[in-house]
Amino acid sequence: MRIVLLCGCALALAACGSRAQLTPPEGASLPVAAYGAPEQPTAEELLELETLAAPQRSVELRRRSEEREDDPFDLPPNRPTRRWTILP
After folding, report:
1. Which distant-in-sequence residues (6+ apart) come within 8 Å of 33 by Cβ?
2. What is the pTM of this model?
3. Which pLDDT score is estimated for 47?
4. How far apart are CA 9 and CA 3, in angstroms?
5. How close are the terminal C-alpha atoms of the chain, in Å?
6. How far apart are CA 21 and CA 56, in angstroms?
7. What are phi and psi of 78, to 5 degrees?
8. Can you spell out the DSSP letters for 4-48?
């Protein structure tokens, strides 16, 4: 019974999504144009992501195990040298 109720709630919640055009509520308007902007942006323009907000991946992911190239900056840790020796 619990499973049926849980599935029914999940299905009802998934069905309440709307795919209609986004418009401001009645009596409200879109944000005003930014200072110096020539015109007020539309709802679609406000939803577009800038390139810096969602950059494209510029490197191809490795799909299988490959040998890495030699990295000249991959140096071993710096070990202190002995300056004094203790004589017996």
Report:
1. 39, 40, 41
2. 0.32
3. 83
4. 10
5. 84
6. 27
7. -75, 120
8. HHHHHHHHHHHHT---SPP-PPTT--PPPPPTT-SSPPPHHHHHS
Closest CA to 31 of 44, 13, 43: 43
Structure tokens that stand for 59 in this block:
């490197």
Rounded to an integer, what distance in angstroms lies between the CA atom of residue 31 and that of residue 46? 9
Q: Tell me the pLDDT tens digit for each residue of 12-59.
A: 777 666 666 777 778 887 778 888 888 888 878 888 887 777 777 766
Single-letter residue type at 41: P
Going by C-alpha positions, the residue among 64, 61, 29, 58 that lies closest to residue 46 is 29
